[in-house]
Amino acid sequence: MATPRASQAMVTLISLLGFAALFQQASAGCFWDTRCQNLWMGGCGDGFVPVETSSDCQGLCSSPQYGACPLFFSRFQCCREDKARLSKTCSRCPSRKDVGNEWVCCSDCSEPAITDGKSKTGYCQTDAYLTFQPKPREVFKWTAREWTTCTGRCKKASRSREVRCLLYVENALYSPTVVADDKCSASNKPPTKERCTPQSCMDANHQKRHGLPIWAIVLISLTCVAAVGGLAFAGFIIYRRRSDNGNHGFVYVMLDSY
């Protein structure tokens, strides 16, 4: 018959072997503690957090090797709680979590569990480890399209254009994304509408600046006609006078011969 001291030593040895097995399993990240613990007082020890509870470890602790836990007792799934390591792969993981200016993910892209966002502490329920990646710098800029054709009356014509707010991501492989206008600075927004002068009005103004009014053209034409007429009349008068002077001289010559 075993003495009480021997029994206590046996229990201690079994406990030590159990903890050794637990810490060996813990190197994988998450493990099932096969001990039956009180649901409200049980735990996983320093550096580990309880994730799930199940009497049969969700089928991994089945009988006859492991007996069922009594009422209000269960087995705990424990995961190692670590600080995230710097990585460059979180941007590829769909299940990454946004934590401030950084992404937190598991190295195998499984869904991470974050226990402290400020220190980026948490765990992965797989054999992966927790990682984080600084988010690429985001820049919001206004972009304006071409102006539409100027339409309207000469002094009331206007034209418009579309102005959108775009998100540019540093080192991104994709094109800028259209986002809400409130993301861009309202004070730097380009105008969407402005006054303008239609081409027809510009042509009319050009003619006014470089051409003469009709009344001026008529006046100049009449002046030219009058001038030409005056010159012709003056020439005719001179011609008549010369003709008259020539005839009188001929008469004088004829009289002298007599």
TrEMBL record:
<keyword id="KW-0812">Transmembrane</keyword>
<keyword id="KW-1133">Transmembrane helix</keyword>
<dbReference type="InterPro" id="IPR000884">
    <property type="entry name" value="TSP1_rpt"/>
</dbReference>
<dbReference type="Pfam" id="PF19030">
    <property type="entry name" value="TSP1_ADAMTS"/>
</dbReference>
<protein>
    <submittedName>
        <fullName>Uncharacterized protein</fullName>
    </submittedName>
</protein>
<dbReference type="InterPro" id="IPR036383">
    <property type="entry name" value="TSP1_rpt_sf"/>
</dbReference>
<feature type="transmembrane region" description="Helical">
    <location>
        <begin position="214"/>
        <end position="239"/>
    </location>
</feature>
<feature type="signal peptide">
    <location>
        <begin position="1"/>
        <end position="28"/>
    </location>
</feature>
<keyword id="KW-0732">Signal</keyword>
<keyword id="KW-0472">Membrane</keyword>
